[in-house]
Every structure is written in C-alpha cells, then in structure tokens.
Specification:
Blueprint lengths: L8 E5 L3 H10 L14 E9 L1 H13 L3 E3 L2 E2 L7 E9 H10 L5 H18 L3 E5 L2 E5 L4 E7 L14 H13 L4 E5 L12 H18 L4 E4 L3 H9 L4 E4 L9 H8 L2 E5 L17 H19 L6 E4 L8 H9 L12 E2 L5 H7 L8 H14 L3 E4 L2 H21 L1
Parallel strand pairs: 8-9, 8-15, 9-10, 10-11, 11-12, 12-13, 14-15
Antiparallel strand pairs: 1-2, 2-5, 3-5, 4-5, 6-7
Helix pairs in contact: 5-6, 6-7, 7-8, 12-13
This protein binds 6-hydroxymethylpterin-diphosphate.
Amino acid sequence: MPHLSLNARVIAAANVRPILEEIGRTHTAPATEYVLPGSNTVALALENLSAAQAGLLQAEMLEAGGDVVAPQRASASGPAKVDIVLIGSRSQFQTLLARSADAAPEAAAVRDEVRRALDNHARTRFEIRMGARRLTVGPEPAVMGILNVTPDSFSDGGKWLESSSAVARADRLVEEGADIIDVGGESTRPGSNPVTEQEELARVLPVVETLASRIDVPVSIDTRHARVAREAVAAGACLVNDVTGLQGDPGMAAAVAETGAGVVIMHMLGEPRSMQDHPHYDHLMADICRYLRRGMQIAADAGVPEDGIIIDPGIGFGKTVRHNLEILARLGQLRTLGAPVLVGPSRKRFIGKLADVETPSERVYGTAAACSLAVAAGALVLRVHDVGEVRQALAVATAITQVDENAS
Ligand code: HH2
C-alpha cells in the first residue's frame, strides 16, 4: 500500500536519448560507456519524514553520488517533520535502493515508497477495469467524449437535452473516435447551482440506458451523487466520473465498489458555486497529489480495485489561469501516483482568456494544443467536446512523443 503522508512526487525526468544518439553517430564505443553529467536526472520530493528517516536517506543518497535538499519545516504539533528532495540519475537512485536493502523498518518504508514512485512514474500502459469491460490506455491515449444533458452547461447547455438528440450526438462522438462517452446531468461550471437528484436522474437515466444497449464503447456517468451513480450503473454505465474525487457524497466510494464500476477521482478545491473565488494553494502540485491520494485511499478502503482508478487534476475546478497552466506543464508529476491520468481542458475559460475567444465552442484549437501537450507530459485520457478534431491533434502528438520511447 502506498505511503500517504510521504506524498512522493517525481518532478523531472530529462531525456538523454538525443544525447546518446549524437554520441553514437560520431563514436564507435557504445554510447552507454559515456558518463553524461546531469543527464537522465530525476528529482523526487518526499514530505513528512522524521528527522531520523531524513538523516539516513540523505546520507545514503549522497553516498550513491546523488544530491539532497532538506530544509527543516517547523510543525506546531508533535516533532518536526522534514520535507526533502532527492536529486540524481536513475542509476544513482538504483544504487540508493540497493544500498538500503537491509535498512531498519522505518527507513525501509521510505525506500519502498521511493521505489514505488519511480516505478509508477515510468509506467506508460494501463488496463483500466470498468465493470466487466477493460480499456487499455497507453501509449495511445483514449478520448472521452462529453455528452451534457443539461440546460446550463457552459459550452453546450441545452443542446442535447432531448433524449433523441443526446443519442444522436453520442453516435456522432463514437463515429469521430470516442473511446468513452461521459454523460452528465448536472453542470459543475463555476457559479452553477446544484440540481436535485430526482432531476439529475430524470435527465441521465434514459440516455445512459439507450446508449449502453446501442453503442459499443463504455458509458461513463459524470455525477457527484452516490444514488445517481448506482442507478446509472444499473442502467448500463460502467465508469463513475466523480468531480469531488470520492470526497463529497460519503456514500460514493461504496457505490463504486459495490457496483464494480471504474472511477475517475478528480481534484476540486471547494465547490462549484464558489470555487473560483480566489483559489489558494500552499503548493499547487503537492496539494493536488495529496488530495488525489486521499481519494485513492478512500477507494481502496471501500474495496475498489486499484486498476479501476483514473486520476484527474480537475482543470478549472478552483484554479486560476496560472494554476491551470502550471498543472498542464507539471502534469507528469501525477504519474507518481500509479494511476492513468485524465485531463479535461476542453473549451474551458482559461483557453478563452489566453487566446481571447469569448465563445466556448470556438475554443477547439486551444483545446487541441492543451491536449497535445498534456499527452506529451503523460496524460492517457482526454475528456473533450470536439472528439474528431482532438483525435487528429493527438495522432500527431502521440507519434512525436513516441519517437524516443520507440527507440529504446
Ligand atoms: N470538467 C467538467 C465536468 N466534468 N470531469 C472530469 N473528470 N474532468 C473535468 O475536467 C471535468 C469533468 C466541466 O466541463 P463540462 O462538462 O463541459 O461543463 P459543465 O460542468 O458546465 O456541464
């Protein structure tokens, strides 16, 4: 079981392949014989270590030839806890892990977390369990097509409210290459008001039921309510997309576990009505990781299998434009958690602000740019309105991203 309080994050992984190729071109000796200073460097952040754990780890990492940054953090209650950053090449980390093989239990827990974090970060393929179905993602990303059966969604509210037009829209999304259809009956746009469960059920159930028997791709239910999740899965959905990351409705984790559905655990700060009122983070990526880890732990405690979980940093949910950009630029850190990463930048306000496009349905190029860079950083599921257009962008982005991976 991963160590929650250490909140490990692999921060950077420089790519050495172009350098090795360059050496290989001009020298006959195998490129691996060359020591490349600073190449293939990863940084690993760990929180809440005891002073003893930190001291030991620091000594071992320095002995392995790596570096350690260990500022002291004062703690109001209890003994001081230490946050540290280990920096080194992958082989220096391997030396660290080999050296501390006979460590005391306290140090062994940290070592296990270091190993797990590095292994998770390197993983590029997942088979996601969604009820009886399996969806393989990576290296090719999957596209989740959005189907909002709401009168007030920010970009397509009211368009697919009639069941028949919703079904026709889903058919179209599948034709364009959607791997999942995500049906939502409540807008969670900034400032939106909640709807009653009854209303939400009346909107989504007929659509989910029809789609599940009609289309060949998995149907997902975008809801934060356990009852809606249960009834939608009974009607044929096999994935629950919970924008509260299992930290809203206390019955949600059990609903997911008992129905056997997969789950998207998304990060949100606050709640939709007020989430955009001056969102603040102590440390953006560390805070999001901590929240997602808590959601994963809640899922595990309820009996949700590990391979049924997808994680999502929640673009636009309690985030400024700068926060959204930072999340997309640092998305790779989330791979440390060991679950496939989903992102949903589609047509969102930050794209409108950056590119000066007022009308959400005209933000498709900005959406494609955000999705392409997200894939390069390791995102494996993209939640979008414009499936055909984004598929085209992703075919190119994925091929470019694969150049170095395929070479190994
Ligand atoms: N964004 C929205 C809704 N659900 N789910 C996940 N996992 N990730 C997201 O980024 C996400 C989401 C908001 O977008 P949309 O559904 O288009 O709008 P609205 O909430 O107004 O219906």
